[in-house]
Amino acid sequence: MSLLHLIFLIFSFNLITFGNGPGMIPLLQEALVDQSGVLSIDQLLYAFAIARLTPGQANVYVASVGYFLFGIAGAVLATLVIQLPGYMMLPFMKFYERARSMAWIGRFTRGLTVASVGLIFAATLSIGLRTLTGPITWVVFAAALVMMIFLKRSQMLSLLLACLLGILLKALLPS
Question: 15 by DSSP, 3-state: which?
Fold first, then answer.
């Protein structure tokens, strides 16, 4: 895979997905892990995990992928190219504001949103099936889920507390 090919993938995937990082995971996994094998699933998951802890998550995610494959040049170009679709849409925003009342535009937007939710769900399943490998990982997962969904804690706090729980459980119950 060339740097130009990676840039094209990031640009085209970002153009067709909502949610940037999470929406792109299954597409990047298929292209970079499953088809070409240039990244391991662990590298892809590591990039995603690091990105979840930072502002500008999609930027950090694709920068990490770019860095894994092409070093600093890959990180810089991936970060720049992920911005392009958003900037390219700016001239069309005035048209969209007028056109969104049209029935077919509304249906298209809703369909795109639902499809993006499907992509994010697929990414969640893919990551979950690869990372939930034993009792400790399931306990940490359940704790994070309870904190975010039922206790309404922030993602950052939930991640940090789940990490601490994982470290504690691993120290108390070594495998």
Answer: helix
Contacts of 150 (CB under 8 A, 6+ apart): none
Report the SS3 class of residue 38. Answer: coil
Within 90-146, where are the H helices? Answer: 93-99, 103-131, 135-145
**Rounded CA separation 6/10 (Å):** 6
Cβ neighbours for 70, distance < 8 A, ≥ 6 positions apart = 3, 6, 77
How far apart CA 132 and CA 45 sit, in angstroms, is 13
- Contact status, residue 44 vs residue 58, Cβ threshold 8 Å: no
pTM of the model: 0.68
Structure tokens at 101: 């009342």
- How many Å apart are CA 61 and CA 54, to the nearest integer? 10
What tokens does 85 get?
Answer: 């679709």
Over residues 50-70, the mean pLDDT reads 83
pLDDT tens digits along 129-146: 888 888 888 999 999 999
